[in-house]
Amino acid sequence: MEHTIKLKVNGISYDVRVQSKRSLLSVLRDDLGYIGVKEGCGAGECGACTIIMDGKAINSCMVLAVEADGSEILTIEGLSDGDNLHPIQKQFIEKGAIQCGFCTPGMILTTYEFLKRNPDPTEDEIKVAISGNLCRCTGYVQIIEAITAAAKEMKSNKEQ
Ligand code: FES
Ligand code: FES
């Protein structure tokens, strides 16, 4: 069965015709072209497909597109402010927290939602927050450094 759903992605409104069984991940990537949303396991285990839906970080492979009808979505393509990268993106680059880059959009969006809830996290809290996002390359050390540095930068930006 087909349905028309409404999505707002990175501030842009869409009406999309979708079959009931399509995942939100496949609609974002294949129909709307947001290829920063990565498909890893397709089973809710790797976090590569993480997006922000109505303020929450979710695995878009585990949500049907019809379930997302009417929602507001943020993908990695919408995180920077024009050419100005978000502090989390900047710190991932500066700390060398990106190697192949496959996990990076999901890792950054998970971090974005986490730092909104917990702007001054401990290392252990960071580890728990990113435990659903798998990285095959970095060994996580640089990722944790990048998140710590991003939290500091965002805090000092707020205080200015
Ligand atoms: S692709 Fe969605 S969690 Fe792995
Ligand atoms: S940088 Fe390659 S999977 Fe994380």
Which architecture of the largest domain per CATH? Answer: Roll
Domain count: 2
SSE order, one letter for each helix or strand: EEHEEEHHHH
Overall form:
globular
Q: Which CATH class of the largest domain is shown?
A: Alpha Beta
C-alpha Rg, in Å? 16 Å
Q: Tally of extended strands? A: 5
CATH topology group of the largest domain: Ubiquitin-like (UB roll)
- Report the CATH superfamily of the largest domain: Beta-grasp domain
- The secondary-structure class comes to alpha+beta
Listed once per kind, the bound small molecules are: FE2/S2 (inorganic) cluster
Q: Notable features of this structure?
A:
160 residues; alpha+beta; DNA polymerase, domain 1; 2 domains; 5-stranded mixed sheet; 5 strands; binds FE2/S2 (inorganic) cluster
Describe it for me?
The chain has about 160 residues and is an alpha+beta fold. About 35% of the residues lie in helices and about 20% in strands. A 5-stranded mixed sheet has the order 2-1-5-3-4, with helices on both faces. Helix 2 (about 85-95) packs across helix 5. Bound molecules: FE2/S2 (inorganic) cluster (FES) (2 copies). One FE2/S2 (inorganic) cluster binds near residues 39, 44, 46 and 49.
Outline of this structure?
This protein has 160 residues and is α+β, with helices and mostly antiparallel strands. The chain has helices spanning 24-31, 87-94, 104-117, 123-129, 141-159, and strands at residues 2-9, 12-19, 50-53, 56-59, 71-74.
